[in-house]
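[Automated response] Your request has been received and processed.

Submitted sequence:
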Amino acid sequence: TICSPMPGRPYVTWIERSSPTAAMDRQTYMQKLDEEGNILWAPNGIPLSDTDSDSLWPRENLLLIEDGHGGTFTFWSHDYQFVQHVDSNGIRMLGPEGKSLFNGNTRDVLPDRNGGFIMNYLEEDPPNQTSYPMAQRFSPTVTELWNSGGVRIVRNPLLVRSERRECDMTSDGSGGCFIVLLSKGEGNVWSQWIDSTGRLRYGIEGYQI
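Generated structure:
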């Protein structure tokens, strides 16, 4: 995946096998290019963590966004959801392993325009065989800014099911976000506005469209 925080200087991330004989062991790498397409960091890119994945929990679901200051946040799944913050010089700001965020499936992530980011994801609840649509805003140092454990986007019984849901999100321009959710089983669509403080501006059930 690719993004370009600075004009003409894109960042590229990818997941590859840690060795030719490794069937499932994988590592996440990043490279920065200049205006001519020349690489600016190590020939094989920089690893975003020091530990490879394993056959039980391979890395997947790679996402990349800019941080608003010439660097990037990269996200991947490996048992838990992980993030690494890389500055414009290729320095890993969250240590050698990145930071684990939560046990869930990320649907979307966007910059909050203040150096942090907002994520929406499904929080799994295996005992009840269901999952809940959640959102959380993080600071530039990846500290939770909303309720501990995230904000339930919509508390509507028709969306609290084990079935798959579609979800999309965009910034509200002020540190919050607008989210729409589609319940595939019933074909219903809900919208929610979460402001910069984590308040549900459309109420706990959102608005059905």
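Summary generated for your ticket: The longest strand covers residues 9-17. The radius of gyration is 18 Å.
If you did not submit this request, please reply to this message.
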